[in-house]
Amino acid sequence: MNFLHDRGKAAIIYKDREYSYKELITGIKYYSTLLKIKKDDKVVVYIENRPEIIEALFSVWNSKGIGVVLDAGYTAEQLLYVFEDAEPQYIYATNKNYKNVVEAKEKYGKDIKIINVDEIVVPEDFTPDDYEVNIDNVEDVALLLYTSGTTGNPKGVMLTYANLLSNINAIKAIKLVDETDRILAILPYHHIFPLNINLLMTMYFGTLVVILDEMSSEALKKALKDYKITVIIGVPRVWEMLHKAIMGQINKSWAIKKLFKLCQKINSRALSRLVFKKVNNELGGSLRVMASGGAKLDPEIARDYLTLGLPLMEGYGLTETSPIISFNNPDRIKPGTVGELIPDIEVKIVEDGEVLVKGANVMKGYYNNPKATAEVIDADGWFHTGDLGKLENNYLSIIGRKKEMIVLSNGKNINPSDIESEIFKGTDLIKEIAVMEYNNHLMAVVYPDFDLIKHRKITNIKETLKWEIIDKYNITAPKYRKILEIKIVKDELPKTKLGKVRRFMLNDFLAGQAIEDENEDSSKHEVKKEIVIPQEFKAEYETLKDYMEKNYNVEVTPDAHLELDLGLDSLDIVEILSFIEMSFGIKITEEEFTDIKNVLDMAKFVKERGGEFSDNEVDWKTILSQDTNIELPKSAWVGKLIRFIFKPFFSIYFSLKKEGQDKILSEPTIYVGNHQSFLDALIFNQAISSAKMGDTYYLGTIVHFGTPLRKYLAERGNVLIIDINKNLKETLQVSAKVLKEGKNLVIFPEGARTRDGEIQDFKKTFAILSKELNIPVVPFGIKGAYEAMPYGQRIPSMSPITIKFFDKVMPEGLTVEEIVEKSKDEIELWLIK
Predict the structure, then answer these.
(1) Do 77 and 168 fall within a single domain?
(2) pLDDT in tens, 372-405
(3) Where is the Carrier domain (predicted)?
(4) What is the pTM of this model?
(5) Where is the domain boundary, 401, 418, 438?
């Protein structure tokens, strides 16, 4: 059977240079002369995406051998694993990875011949006997591909020529691609998806393929335009990147946004291509086929591309199925499904929901591993994919990986990737996320976009991610799917080259144990290099280290992140910045602090600012005694007016009951209460006199008072606006100023409204103020407000509400922690009665 022959035209374009089919086959034939192998001998192809990878692989086939195509970024250790398993005779390598091959060969100890393609020059006078590559028997093994493995060690998948042709012929059957097309190759060829569809299929059809040597949105757009690309195959990350850029432009214009929604309703591809002609032209103007595979595609993204007149067809398969099992026909796309089954295969869904497949696309088996083969291919020839799915009207939908499903003790099954996708939609602050089970509830492991966090001057990373991202997901999620724990990490999650999280590694990753990630040398994880502290700022580092270890009982290392590694909160940061100001005479604002990554960076910053050390004690009394130029609101008329207007409403609609009003003090007081609803401050106002209101101030977050109107009302309602990412120290000093001037302060120390009716942990700000200024704390509890207006509800329900004041807590003889505990306990005990 003929697989490749001279077409009398260009075969590939790489770095703007055309390679004809004749030139390519000449190279293949010359490479074949370098191989002294017999039938079924194995040859490793360890080359980046470039013309030589085609010449190398086809030379193996031309010599009747088996091609072992590997990731050109494999480490020496990973190469050694393949050498020992596959026992190849030769390896094709490049200058970039030659050292790895030499190292692996030395450890391997057996003879393996190395061919460096960068040293090969095809003689000008070399003329092959023919310009064809023929296959003797389609049932012979063509490829040995090692799975990256999301669940364990890589296994060698044996694919025959018949396996590969089953996919190629399925595409040919619906005339999806032909020799007139121009295909862009952006994915690495060591994966079966791009290898078979982007490379082998193009050579078989006689299509032109353009190999992109740089992966960026600009390089991608340029190639699409310059070469009038008609077909592009990518993974969801590629389509998400383009989608984000396109929709960002659309959402800038109210008119275009409305037009987009109109096209969505009309659902006409011809109209959409006309309306969004500019978008199509930006992508070269010639795109007919856009295919997505390798991971699950967000259905909304697929729908948006359809609205733009760009049919993005999602497919599904595995390395073991060559890879395609199903794909969406561009004329019959069903977003949310992975399309129709390819011809000549069978698929069935068994009782537990697993997808089983049988047919010409199913691998011969795992090399050297009959046990593993028997685990996935049963006696009747059905391959067990390990994926859960549904099959309706010949359209397949994939729910998730069977092994990755989380089963909680209540019997609920949860697909973590669905939750991850939902969270991703609502933020650009997260680069990677993995949802896993932790203590019988869900935990999110988050690798944030630290550059974006720095750009937006966010100092309190965990609080920001918790309330602005995870909480927004939790509000609409069913109880069993809520994220109850968040773990922020400083390193990328362990994953495959296609971006799939290797979930079986997560526990070790979090425990800080040695992990061998396929992207990195395992030695990176086994031995943590000691960080050498430059002599010029060693003194500053030691001073900061001593201060932190003494005051916060933590073990400081140079690369320790203050929040993520040392567990310091925003109040601790205020103390540290004040210590630097008092000891070195250097003022670092909380915004400037976002540029400081770790303790060593902080020491360097102090040194570069030229501060001289003087041994000064710093404590909260010192911090709170510093003057602030911020003026307090002069009037509470807005608050008083609202109190007056809503008094009948609270009395009748909520049957508001006020208890313990005799506990309200005439002296300056900090009032702290549980935060049940949006109504809480209004409820408090109903419980105190109008005169008391004039002397009472509230702490409110910038999130709730960010608009000009709300700021105006806040300034006339005695509300002090907090931004924990910018001016927490200043907020504390203003709060101290309120109390020193004989006024009262109302704080809801949970920091946010309850999401489930339960009382949350109290932050210690109020207790620090109480302790250092010797101000009494009066706890108050609110009951029924959550039932009347839980978080997310816009209109309150009729429900009885009670507010109760408790005995004052005096700070004398108590620690800050004890003040917090006593205040919270009073309220909590009352709530559960």
Answers:
(1) yes
(2) 999 999 999 999 999 999 999 999 999 988 888 8
(3) 534-610
(4) 0.71
(5) 401
